[in-house]
Amino acid sequence: xxxxVITGTxxxxxxxxxxxxxxxxxxxxxxxxxxxxxxxxxxxxxxAGDAQEVARLAxxxxxxxxxxxxxxxxxxxxxxxxxxxxxRPEEVAEAAAxxxxxxxxxxxxxxxxxxxxxxxEGGTLADVAGLLGAPVLLVTSAGLGTLNTTELTxxxxxxxxxxxxxxxxxxxxxxPDLAARCNLADLPDVSGAPLLGAVPAGAGSLxxxxxxxxxxxxxxxxxxxxxxxxxxxxxxxx
Length: 238
Hints:
Layout: E1 3-8, H1 15-28, E2 33-37, E3 40-41, H2 50-58, E4 62-65, E5 68-69, H3 75-82, H4 89-100, E6 105-113, H5 125-132, E7 136-140, H6 146-159, E8 167-172, H7 178-191, E9 195-200, H8 208-214, H9 229-236
Parallel strand pairs: 1-6, 1-7, 2-4, 2-6, 3-5, 7-8, 8-9
């Protein structure tokens, strides 16, 4: 099944922009792409959500959401506050599987980190990946503090028998500090997974045309790009 689940080590690590880059690179390679947001929170009914932002940047991707809640909170909490039925992992997996029958690649973007709860029973994006048997791409931050959250997420994925094909740094700074430079070597070490890309800070502010042109250069060949981890490390490492 051509499904890739995309999660982050936490909020604001660049997950949506990375999802857009993966979509743009796949579209540039001639593949059809769908983007499914498991649970969109913090936007109104007529506002563009993360899936729509991915399509704006990446191009002609099909977009879908399983649920949308107005408060900018974890999906389970946002659903409870809205007095609405929470999204269930089974619903997300079913929606992704249906999209996979019609597209070459389906990107399922979570909310926050891997274990953010969808419902009172503790359903998470990890459960979605398990139901689909899908690999999980992990978006990390570049600087101080990322090693702990990255290793914890990688350990949780493996404890569940889920595949972690690699990591993508969601916002690589224009002037990386020592911690960020050292993390280029340390992130693969603590996670046991390769770096598959680094998206520059501010990439989401590029025009759609510029974003689509650049995206394959931010991602490694397994993600339909040309980025080289060794060359990047030689250029930016300590």
